[in-house]
Amino acid sequence: MSLAGAGAAALRKPATWRRPGGRGVARRRVAVAALLLALAYAGGLLMFLLDERLSGGSVGGAAAGGLGPMVTVASSVRRRRPLPSPADAPPHAQPGSVYRSHLVFERLLPAMRDDATLASSLSASASWRRTMLMTSHYQNSGDPWMPCVNGRLTRSELPPSNGYLMIEANGGLNQQRLSVCDAVAVASLLNATLVIPTFHLNSVWRDPSKFGDIFDEDHFIETLKEHVRVVKKLPEDVLLRFNHNISSIPNMRTKAYSSPNHYVQNVLPKLLELGAVRIAPFSNRLAQSVPLNIQALRCLVNYHALRFAEPIRILSDELVGRMTKKSLLTGGKYVSVHLRFEEDMVAFSCCTYDGGWREKTEMDNARERSWRGWHDAKGHGIR
After folding, report:
1. Cβ-Cβ contacts under 8 Å for 323 (sequence gap 6 or more)
2. From its phi and psi, is residue 100 left (phi > 0), alpha (psi between -120 and 50) or beta?
């Protein structure tokens, strides 16, 4: 008899399942046993899924006492699933030590003490700032890293200006700082006079601070005077040309991470024609990879020209003095809190910490949700 015929014959004889005794009893026992095994498997699978949802919690203890078969099945299912390597799993660190900040502190403490000693010494020269803390942590073939400004900038008489460049720095304070560095670099590329940047009023923070409220304007202008012309506002004749309406000045909308050639080919002609252009928004509007002389100018702005306004410097000195005095009671240790250390900030910075594969997965997902492939694009993101 063929398999199809045997199957049809079995379907035509349901009475054999109801016959008392003999093979009918055996079949019922097999069916019951199969049903119990199926229930145990389903229960074990359910426990396994619950176990996965509970962030690493295992099935055991009191639960295992009443669910022996299900726990056994769940364990067998778990054994079939490949487990991540222990080296890839995030360390079970105590709260507050996930990013090993205490280890960084211990490594830098001797250099911090050297800084304090040199700063308080009457015989310390102006070069005391170039101490171990600034150079010892980053070594290249045994030599300390040097500031990128050195040897990259040439000082010569500036040619006549091609016009005025205005930018609007958006984002948080860190993004605004980067925008100012890029604005000076772009002004140099265009041989333009940079108007002190304006800060976009953030809809979340609603901070009305202007450039001069945060940074020392006079120091900014003085530091850059041999490289880029900087003025606090547009001159009257230029304002008159645009009816004293800043919004009438053409906004040269520029894509993120535009190359230096883009500015020379697309923005410079308009600047020469009108005498003034603006770019808003101006966050991340210059490519990261630029010629060394342009990068050196960025560094000059970041590390020298941008100095906090005097009220902020006074307050920061008070805070440092208080931390130094108080931390003597705790062996030099203290705790600092980053008020904006949130998922979006960490994701956008593309920095990696000590969270291992779990951190990487979460941050990749956050970047994909917010920027859809930006972090994987050529020349951007993590490298």
Report:
1. 334
2. left
Q: Look at residue 6 and give its three-state secondary structure.
A: helix
- Residue 169: helix, strand or coil by DSSP? strand
The DSSP H or E segment spanning 166 is strand 164-169
What does DSSP assign to residue 59? Answer: S
What pLDDT, on a 0 to 100 scale, did the predictor assign at position 83? 45
> Would the pTM of this model clear 0.70, i.e. be above it?
no
Residue numbers of the chain with a pLDDT score lower than 70? 1-28, 30, 32-35, 40-102, 104, 112, 114-156, 202-205, 373-383
Angle between helices 22-53 and 68-80 (to 10 degrees): 70
Query: Where exactly are the structural domains of the chain?
Result: 23-52+67-74, 164-305, 322-376
Report residue 166 as tokens: 């205005």
**What pLDDT shows up at residue 279?**
95
Residue keyed to tokens 């055996």: 26
Rounded to whole angstroms, how far apart are CA atoms 154 and 144? 23
The Cα 112–Cα 131 span in angstroms is 9
Asked if the peptide bond before residue 160 counts as cis, ω within 30 degrees of 0, the response is no
Closest CA to 264 of 168, 178, 169, 192: 192
* C-beta neighbour count of 120 within 10 angstroms: 9
